[in-house]
Amino acid sequence: MTMILGLVAGMLTTIAFIPQVVKTWKTKSADDLSLGMYVAFCLGVSLWLIYGFIVSDLPIIAANLVTLSLAITLLYFKLTYNNKTR
Amino acid sequence: MTMILGLVAGMLTTIAFIPQVVKTWKTKSADDLSLGMYVAFCLGVSLWLIYGFIVSDLPIIAANLVTLSLAITLLYFKLTYNNKTR
């Protein structure tokens, strides 16, 4: 039950990035996205992943694995679609 | 040690939203932010918080408490600064 709650929580904070990826990919506009946010976020999610492996917590591992790939995609979009800093 | 890793991870994925809040607040522009992302994200972070309380995991509780307040702020900005859907 707790495991299911964790998996649903992880699924939501993970799939949350899908509409952002789709939107940014469609509009090719990332001006309003913060570069600092995505750099810090990718770093943090990587550490969460390591933490998940250490405490052997499946929801944390699963969620952060997918979140990391989506966050890296957005970071790539941000760096590709505009050259302004921040 | 593991606790410290979790706290650093949580701190990073949490403070990551600060540059986004500052940027959006300064530019008053949230066009490129996805409404769907912030709705799903706020919901997911709320569930993470409940999960953290159930498994008594301090890093999860601390991180998601702050992340939730920042994500709600961004959701509010998105709803205030533009009326377009998505």
UniProtKB/TrEMBL annotation, chains A, B:
GO MF, one example: sugar transmembrane transporter activity
Segments passing through the bilayer: 6-23, 35-54, 60-77
InterPro entries: PQ-loop_rpt, SemiSWEET
Localization: Membrane
Alphabetized Gene3D superfamilies for the sequence: 1.20.1280.290
Residue ranges the record marks as coiled coil: none
Record's GO cellular component terms: membrane
Topological category with respect to the lipid bilayer: Multi-pass membrane protein
Keyword terms, alphabetized: Membrane, Transmembrane, Transmembrane helix
Chief location of this protein within or outside the cell: membrane
Protein name from the UniProt record: MtN3 and saliva related transmembrane protein
Source organism per UniProt: Fodinibius sediminis
